[in-house]
Model the fold of this input.
Amino acid sequence: MNGEELRRRYAAGERDFSGFDLKGVNVSGIDPDLDIGAYDKLCPDFAADLSEINLSGSDLTRAILAGANLSNANLTNANLTNAALERCNLTNTNLSGANLTKACLSGAELNGTNMSGANLLYAAISQTYFGADVRGAINVNTVDFTGTPVRGLVLEDGTIIDSDHDW
Done:
């Protein structure tokens, strides 16, 4: 399934895409040949409205979801390795158990996001307000939090960050 079909089916009322193989799906409208670092400059905020979508267990490796509204979505145990999630609205989204290895979440809205048990190995979460629940998340120490005010973060060793922290 490509990004256009996903958006069409979503617009028609379908919400459950759990377990789908969506490797490389592009819902941003951005040319996939662009350097991934350029997405956050090019994508309009919340370009694709996929709020409340169920993508639990789906393979979203290298998916381009930059600028999408994924608020209240279920991405439990989804594979988001190398996914472009810049400037996404992930408010109240369930990312528990998700694989976010090398995912870019720069500028994403993460208030109320459940990232418990997620793999954050080398994820980039810079330039955003990080108010997510990451209890039990692994590899938090490898995350790029550059320029990010982090509060309420419980690190793997039990350290709690409740104020701005210099990363």
In short: The two ends are 39 Å apart (CA to CA). The helical segments are 3-11, 39-42. Residues 3-11 form the longest helix (9 residues). The longest strand covers residues 153-154.
